[in-house]
Specification:
Length: 322
């Protein structure tokens, strides 16, 4: 797991290498077409189809991961394959690259910054001014740190504990991490409250919320330590993050963004445009300065330091099982 985190930071997600999430997305698209052809616009059948898609994708991804684990246990020469598969579940470097692709052209090429931002957010970006682009980049850096890095790392650790308790027999780090990535991919592709997806995406979205719930709160509790705030600062910033994140309709996004906002001293939230609709997000760390490129970079640096902090107990577990 530690080597996988290092590999992720070293090479990220190279385009020449097929990514498991792409395979998951391929299956989701095809299962969605079959489900809609059968269910039409009927809410009940759409919910049932969404549940079946969720069970198939999450279960199948977990079983695929378990199969690779069993192969590595039986044939130690295939351990590098397991390492690469584990690294594919983490998105530390790819998140940094995506956010910096927005920041890099911002001073001179507003159009390029808007296009780069459009790849990583759901809101409309075509008319955003520099300040709103920076806010969107900061919100993405803070929310996706949990979804793309810390939640899969948490489920890897849970799988390591299962392995430790069962003598490498039960589903381990890759099985649980790929199961989580399947739920996360379902949420990103089907978890919208519009059209048929209002019912078809319900099961995947709720499962993703459930699987991210605890990792998100562990991030909010431990992020102040990575920011050098000390134990007392953790309690204070935890209360502030809970207070500010509570009005957000997502049980996790508001809390993670609020934790990063308070730790870096920036105000997040406000109006976002989605198509012809304006949606108001709650203000987080209200009264603080608006995000700058330097503060967004500080968020990315905090994520890197917190990842190292999370890897310490994993290293202790590895030493303790020798």
């Amino acid at each position: 797991m530690i080597a996988a985190a290092g590999l992720d930071r070293l090479i990220g997600d190279p385009r020449w290498c097929p990514h498991p999430v792409v395979v998951m997305g391929w299956w989701i698209s095809r299962l969605r077409r079959l489900a809609e052809a059968w269910a039409g616009d009927r809410p009940g059948p759409l919910r049932l189809a969404g549940l079946l898609i969720t069970l198939l994708l999450v279960g199948g991804s977990g079983l695929a991961g378990w199969g690779l684990e069993r192969l590595a246990v039986a044939q130690p020469a295939t351990t590098p394959l397991l390492l690469i598969a584990l690294a594919s579940a983490l998105a530390g470097r790819s998140l940094e690259q995506a956010v910096r692709a927005v920041l890099a052209p911002l001073p001179t090429d507003l159009g390029a910054a808007r296009r780069a931002l459009g790849w990583i957010v759901g809101r409309d970006t075509a008319e955003l001014e520099p300040g709103e682009i920076l806010r969107a980049a900061a919100e993405t850096a803070s929310e996706n740190a949990v979804d793309g890095l810390f939640a899969p790392l948490f489920w890897m650790a849970a799988g390591a504990l299962v392995w430790s308790a069962t003598g490498l027999q039960g589903p381990g780090p890759l099985a649980l991490a790929w199961g989580f990535k399947a739920a996360s991919t379902l949420d990103s592709m089907l978890g919208y409250r519009s059209g048929r997806l209002r019912w078809l995406g319900t099961a995947g979205a709720r499962l993703d919320d459930l699987l991210v719930w605890l990792p998100c709160r562990l991030v909010a509790l431990s992020l102040p330590l990575a920011a050098g705030r000390g134990v007392r600062g953790c309690g204070r910033l935890w209360r502030l993050a809970r207070r500010d994140g509570a009005p957000d309709p997502s049980p996790n996004a508001g809390l993670s963004q609020a934790a990063y906002a308070h730790c870096t001293g920036v105000q997040l939230g406000g109006l976002n445009r989605y198509g012809d609709q304006l949606k108001a997000k709650p203000l987080l760390a209200a009264g603080q300065p608006l995000p700058t490129a330097a503060r967004v970079e500080r968020m990315l640096a905090l994520t890197g330091r917190l990842e190292l902090l999370w890897l310490l107990p994993i290293a202790a577990l590895a030493v303790g099982t020798q």
